[in-house]
Amino acid sequence: MTLTQPVAADRLHRAAASPPEAPAAASRRPALACAVTLVVTGGAGAALLVAANRAAEWDTGRQFGLFWLGMLVFTLPAVAWLVRRTSSARLRVAVLTAYAGFTYLPKLLRTPDGPLYHDEFAHWRQAHQILLDGRLFEQNPIVKVVGDFPGLHSTVASISALTGVSIWHGALFVLITAHLLVVLGVAVLAEEIWPDGRIAAVAAVLYSMNSSFLFFDTQFGYESLAIPLLVWTLVALHRAMRGPAGRARLGWSAVTLVLSAATIATHHLTALGLLGVMLILCAVATARALRRSHPRAVTWTAWVLTGSAAVLVVTYLAVVAPRTAGYLDPYLAKALDQVAGMAGSSGSGKRTLFRESVAPWWERYAAFGAQGLAGAAMAAALWRLRYRRTGDAVSRTGALAMLVLGSLYFPAALLILTPSGAEGARRSWAFSYLGIALVVAPVVVALLDHATRRTARAAVAVALLAACTVALVGNTAAGMNPSYRFPGPPVFGSDTRSAIPEVAAASAWLRETQGRDLRIVADRYSGLIFGSYGEQRPVTGSQSFRTYDLYLAQPGREIPPRLIEQLSSWRFGYLIVDRRMAREVPEIQIYFETNEPVPHDGRPAFTLGQLTKFDHTPWTIKIYDSGNIAIYRFDFTSYGGPR
Q: What are the chain's domains?
């Protein structure tokens, strides 16, 4: 591969044309200049990222400009070194490694010492429980299906046990390594399709512009490890298809299946996404084989490996993780209902983008401009694939399959306009943007090479860098709210800023005085802290277990007996009440869960009387009160007695 191996002929030619010392000295000069450039710009960029977080803490409004200035200070010189014709393969690998490390900084600076995002609490708890109890596949009270996919948690717990570091620091090691593997994996996969080191490097940079790259796929979540597994599975699949019959093909086939199994054991959606990409590749290979443009043996190899992966996925989901379908179904069904409502005359189900967002106007415009740029780039890639047929049969099949995959990016724009489909749309872009990156990269390199004059090359380079900047800024703004990207003052109802010290202190008190693994009733935000650091088992309500009816009941009104019976028979012992629900509206418009029957009209959905009525009911005994947080112990034997 040109990315990882220097060209032997070029080395021999230089050795013959120069004295023995000259090539070594000449090869050191660009490497030294590159190292100095990246160290200086990396330090400056990191300082600007820190300044952006400090500005966000003081809510000065300057954090957006400082953040993107810090990102571009490093990214633009790194890209310049990657696309230089004279850059060696080793230099490109070094620059890509530095680029992967720098692009992890935004998330590292955002959460350096512990979980912060919603799902991170669930994964932290799961790894912590494995370290404490040594048991896999335990149900997680925060995200129900997390325990069924122990790949990430068992890896983190193993590193923590072997090295003695904390769960969080073990997770950081795994996540930074996975981030590096994504960047290098996309480059290696690109070289399987386009045997050119510059195209491979550009593909890796283009993929880093997807909306999940900087924050979502760097969090302590199972997709952060599963995405690199998917990319390297596709690398192994391409090599199995290309390899000669015999040990080489069998070896890469075995690697493909092992990586597929690891992906399945790590994340459900990534496993399904991997299976979808493999099916696309098989469909393209079959269509080309029917036209005798593709070897049938290669097509059969793709189908056998895809069928084997499908068997693994179906078996795992049916036997090990049967709850996954029930977990995903409500989100998909509601999203489809909302799409149908948008298509109807009423327009119901529509979601307004950037509603009440504090993001600056240029970020919002970039979010829409990024979609137009992606469409134009894909059109150019389609034209190039149609009229420039290069590479062997496997490369051509891979390029066409990536074109199909990349085109799936655009239908997700319809889902992002619905409240229930927006989350799934963002997650799908981590897969579909891989197709965009791999087919657009040769277009970018061709544009750079087409300009022969220096002024023309400079103009093309500036235009391409400007387009990439718009794509990076716009995709990130569309994919992640400012409260996820920047610190700031406490905000009730935010998945990142509602965890005030008062809640953490209450959870620690309950664990130390009453024990762990207690079944408790809580709201979404208290449940995150009590269920992770507090080591309890919270429930935040569902359509079949309407615990939120406890909070919704008016003072003096009877609680539904069916709910009391459920709480008593399932041995729930404690109730957590956050009185901020009577004073503030949650930022993300959720108190308990997405399908809650709670009014959201811009005003608090609860009165103080609704939340303090438990002080007077005989079956709830207050055992803790810190002002905002109150903890009650259930005594169902006294239910129905005098107040």
A: 1-103 (no CATH), 104-485 (no CATH), 501-638 (3.40.50)
406: which residues sit within 8 A by CB, 6+ positions away? 378, 381, 432, 433, 434, 435, 436, 437, 438, 439, 440
Q: Two tokens at 180?
A: 């590096």
- The torsion angles phi and psi of 96, rounded to 5 degrees, stand at -65, -35
Among 307, 311, 255, which Cα is nearest to 281's? 307
Contacts of 300 (CB under 8 A, 6+ apart): none
Signed CA dihedral, 635, 637, 639, 643: sign only: negative
Q: Are 193 and 438 in contact (CB under 8 A)?
A: yes
pLDDT tens, 404-428?
999 999 887 666 655 555 566 677 8
In angstroms, the CA 104 to CA 108 distance is 6
Torsion, Cα of 254, 256, 261, 265 (10° steps)? 140
CA-CA distance, 500 to 481, in Å (whole number)?
19
Q: Which residue has the tokens 């909302």?
A: 338
The CA–CA distances, whole Å, from 237 to 183, 305, 565 equal: 18, 8, 54
In degrees, to the nearest 5, what angle opens at C-alpha 186 toward C-alphas 463 and 363? 40
Q: What is residue 320's DSSP assignment?
A: I
Q: How many residues are present in the chain?
A: 643
How are beta strands 574-578 and 519-521 bridged, if at all?
A: parallel
Tokens 């600007």 belong to residue: 48
Average pLDDT over residues 4-16: 41
pTM summary value: 0.89
Q: What is the pLDDT of residues 330-361, one digit of tens each?
A: 555 555 554 455 445 444 445 455 565 678 89
SS3 at position 534: coil
* Range 442-450 contact pairs with CB under 8 angstroms and sequence separation of 24 or more: 442/194, 442/196, 442/199, 442/381, 442/384, 443/377, 443/380, 443/381, 443/384, 444/202, 444/206, 445/83, 445/196, 445/198, 445/199, 445/202, 446/384, 448/83
Residue type, 31: A
CA 205 to chain CA centroid, Å, is 17
Instruction: Show the tokens assigned to 88.
Output: 């060696």
CB-CB contact of 212 with 426 (8 Å): yes
